[in-house]
TrEMBL record:
Matching InterPro entries: ERp29, ERp29_C, ERp29_C_sf, ERp29_N, Thioredoxin-like_sf
Lineage start: Eukaryota, Metazoa, Ecdysozoa, Arthropoda, Hexapoda
Organism: Phlebotomus papatasi
SUPFAM superfamilies: ERP29 C domain-like, Thioredoxin-like
PANTHER family: ENDOPLASMIC RETICULUM PROTEIN ERP29, ENDOPLASMIC RETICULUM RESIDENT PROTEIN 29
BP-aspect Gene Ontology terms: protein secretion
Protein's name according to its UniProt entry: Protein windbeutel
Amino acid sequence: MLLKTLVLSVLLAGALLKVAEACKGCVELDELTFDKLIPRFPFTLVKFDVAYPYGDKHEAFSSFAQDVAEVNDLLVGLVGIKDYGDKDNAELGKLYQVTEKDFPAIKLINRLAPNKWIDYPADLPVTVDNIKSFVREHSNLYIGLAGCLEEFDRLAGRFMEALTRGEKEAQEVLQEAQVEEKKFNGEENSGKMYIAIMQRVLEKGVDFLTTERERVKSLQGKKLSDGKKQLLEHRLNILAAFKSTVSVKTEL
């Protein structure tokens, strides 16, 4: 019986270690390494969680880490907190105001203001695209969402800024987008969707963006084919690119 219990314990420990190692692209941080690594990157996204995390939220965070592996200005870290034994990283959790009921707690840290972190909204589902949108919204990092094109995302931001200066400048950005789309030589691409949205905004005003988001979200609640669901998801992601660019400092 004792041998059986020992074997089960070893197997369980091995399984937990595999779970902990499953977050490719993540860096495990602790009370000794945290302050050494955070200042080396303009932004750090940290997930405070149990020592051996698992489940859908952890898998989404892991997938996000892999997707942004080539974003050099972003560190994706994990802080595993134990409530037993030596209570590893418990003090680090207290410093960042994390309690057990908050797990997983995701925070975005700007190295210029490490004590003024931004919390991932508690009511926002932890999905890959939601994490990407969160980081994009609160940093100047480009992180592409499904269905989005980097150049057109930038044009969408410029379009919204141009609108504040007048319709003429916005029209000029629209023309740039049309020229950019022609580079695809007739191949199917989501650039056409960006252009259509720009045209509708010029026709109906910026309120179109809000009503269109609501319309698309209402359609998502209906029974649809996988292809249609993906198309709606891409449209929402593209709509998210239409916001004024917020300047975020990353250097002293």
